[in-house]
Write a structure and sequence with these properties.
The structure is a homotrimer. By secondary structure, chain A is α+β, with helices and mostly antiparallel strands. Chain A has one domain: Jelly Rolls. Chain A is 27% helix and 37% strand. Chain A is built from three helices and eight strands, in the order ββαββααββββ. In chain A, the strands form two sheets. A five-stranded antiparallel β-sheet of chain A has the order 1-8-3-5-6, with helices on one face. The longest helix of chain A is centred in the middle third of the chain and has 14 residues. The first copy, chain A, starts with a strand and ends with a strand.
């Protein structure tokens, strides 16, 4: 079974907490022991895991990635102008694999799953597969 | 079943589209629903997903990684001189997990799978496992 | 079955070889064909794969990540002061998927699995799931 989630982003760069939606997909599947694959089918967005307690962590991650992969490098040749988004997506990754036990995602205490928008705002999709 | 692919690279840094080879391995396996793990068994090469439409995206990714992880940092101590390749491989990752439905890789419209060479040219291998 | 490993780190940044512990978990599981998911349940540590032969590769990876994601960027807002650790963890990744055949991790000749500490020293955990 594949569950497809919709994610609406509102900024150029944004980390959207999708932990609740992913856990919902796990619960619906009735799978109690396994692995959940969260896959982003885009090329200027990815998925990561990080801290949820302090929202400054999210903005620090986005700020630093922006400094490292600046938007306006004069050596970019891709004429859509969003090469930085493509590069950040490759650096962040397109999937996360999270272990399931007793029907629950086995995330650490401070971990949440984030959709990583690098060329928004857009309407995006996430595929969730439970095995 | 594990399928082993051979990839010949021709440049020092190169993204080689292996989507067709991976889909062939999926088709041969006769698995219609599952997950495909693409694993690179090297330490100066990885595997990523990105856009196939405009080849400038590939060259922009390689150009920016080269600027970030320059080849000649005088602080490198590894005497084979290819530390940059090792670092880029860790930043890109050694595996991709792609969902399979109806016997097809569930990639997004613009997504293709790329072998990421960071210390070529070389003869490389890729392992594909379907579960 | 999930096996939980304990990892003690001794430096602020450190790559700890956990290949032996992960192979032990695979052997205990008696699974001969499958995939091993190594998952780090922290937000300032990750897991990667890289070379074991020359220890300078490890220190070069850590050195370069430290230069890219400096510890004291005055634009960081997270008041625990460890934003660099969070960012490096996202760049490195929180899981690795390694294929199992004949009960053995199918790593390449030079590949080992490393717990990547980015805000140590600490007592850390790693979850290993075999499917």
């Amino acid at each position: 079974m594949i569950k497809e989630l919709s994610v609406k982003t509102h900024s150029h760069s944004e980390l959207v907490n999708i932990t609740g939606l992913v856990q919902e997909a796990v619960s619906e599947s009735k799978v109690t022991e396994g692995v959940c694959i969260v896959f982003v089918p885009h090329t200027t967005a990815g998925v990561t895991i990080n801290e949820n307690a302090d929202p400054d962590v999210k903005s620090d991650i986005l700020m630093k990635l922006d400094k490292l992969v600046d938007w306006n490098d004069r050596d970019y040749r891709h004429d859509e102008g969003n090469s930085a988004g493509h590069i950040k997506a490759t650096m962040t990754g397109f999937s996360q694999s999270v272990i399931i036990q007793n029907g629950q995602l086995q995330l650490g205490t401070w971990q949440h799953i984030y959709f990583a928008e690098f060329d928004g705002p857009r309407s995006r999709r996430v595929k969730v597969k439970i095995i």
